[in-house]
Amino acid sequence: MEMSKVYYTNLRTRIGDNLLQKLERLIKTAGIGDIDFEDKYTAIKMHFGEPGNLAFLRPNYAKTVADVIKELGGKPFLTDCNTLYIGGRKNALDHISSAYLNGFSPFSTGCHVIIADGLKGTDDVLVPVEGGEYVKEAKIGRAIMDADVFISLTHFKGHEATGFGGALKNMGMGCGSRAGKMEMHSAGKPHVAQELCVGCKMCTKMCAHDAITVADKKASIDHNKCVGCGRCIGACPKDAVKAATDESYDILNRKIAEYTKAAINGRPNFHISLVMNVSPYCDCHGENDAAIVPDVGMFASFDPVALDVACADAVNAQPVLANTYLAECDHEGHDHFGTIFPETDWKAAIDHAVKLGIGQKEYELVEVK
Questions:
Q1: Calpha distance 294→308 (Å, rounded)
Q2: Which of 98, 214, 215, 313 has the CA that lies 20 to 30 A from 158?
């Protein structure tokens, strides 16, 4: 089998040639123009950053990608799904406000922001996972599934549950609705934090299985009736309905691969990862620690698996920066992410994605000047 090509450009510039021009040259050389964008709705899946975090990608990069898509005749929009946890992106209104706060407005990027799973994170589509071992039907944000073309634009960084956050994490976890995220994180079912519940019965209206009852202004969930769909989580105005987070990291990573398969299967897709500001934790945090390695460069490929492997290899080849979280760890071997989060198993997502036919680990790195 021929190796997948991963295109790469470093972050060096010269007078008259800036990083945005290099990004445009990179994705065009990598073949984004081979996709038929003419009058096609194009989802650009990215992470807008939690308020307080400054490691997320600058909106200038999103604008460059959107401009190329418009030049090719497409109709791009920036998108993400609401978060499972409490924060600045748990519903569409807060999510859009957070995106605007961090610079992702139609005026700065040239395209609109659409939160794919709707106002409360309940607007999803059940998508069959071909070859899925853990997920038979993924719960993907509706606007993402409505798109004709799928582009991922990823900030490559560390992650406390998946080792690193790359293209697979951006797509798999990121495209899941709130209920989908619960499915990936949990083998169990949601429960009610009684001290937060006010007995409003919004969860009972959402439950299709009569699993929730309210007594003395406190809701409770009958796990014998509950099917674990997670829609009550999005319905609760007080964040009293909590998801279990009991799934092991290796199974979590495999579920992410299966959700990725659901999100991109059967339509044109292309993937971009920027390896810069490599913070140890996800951009979902309301803060960002110092970058653990020097900035590396920009990568693009039609193969998201090869792309993740190439980015991980590039980071692991970098020296450890002083006065960082990584420098404080007992470093073993050549796996920076495994050193920071030894309990995670990022290779599980890669291997499972290969098994699912999403891509391959072997790649040819093609440098773009």
A1: 18
A2: 98
